[in-house]
Write a structure and sequence with these properties.
The protein has 201 residues and is α/β, with parallel strands linked by helices. It is built from eight helices and six strands, in the order βαααβαβαβαβαβα. It has one domain: Rossmann fold (3-Layer(aba) Sandwich).
Amino acid sequence: MTLPLPVPDASIISECQRGILEPELGAFAGLAEQARSRCIVPRIAVLAEAFRDVGKPVIHLTIAHRLDFADVKANSLLAALARKHGNVIAGTPQATIVPELAPAVQDFVVERSAGLIGFLGTALDATLRRLGVQTLVVAGVSTNVAVTGCAMVASDLGYDVIVAEDCIAASDPATHEVIVRDQLRMIARVASATQITQALT
């Protein structure tokens, strides 16, 4: 028996930026291709609008590195690649959110210049608590790192987490499947965008 989803209080959209999702601008061709083939951006757009329609917050988590990468320590492969290739620098087209998901006037944008997870070193947790959020939905990229990291930290902080499975993507289908099946289900509810929209109403 499948229990009904709790009513979500907010939607988080992780790193849906041109330098990550547009292969001609980014260094993550596999991830960009998976996001395109899974059609996550159109689904995220519909889901975000459903949250706005019922007056619930949509929060965009973005990465925008300093030009000098002074605060990016090359202690992970992603950080080392960012420094090496100069990816997603603040103020460049790479750092902008893809047009289909451009923030509405009432949306929140939580930006960070370093790190892998949007909860760490940002105002995200404080913002969610001030908004009275208990149950949040995570969408965006990537299943490999940012989405799973956000879900794990949010769960540890006491939030109830729903991951919109058809609104996330990994670098390849096998990786996505394994992480959703063996990891995300341990720390969050996994649902479709349609199921989440139904729970909103």
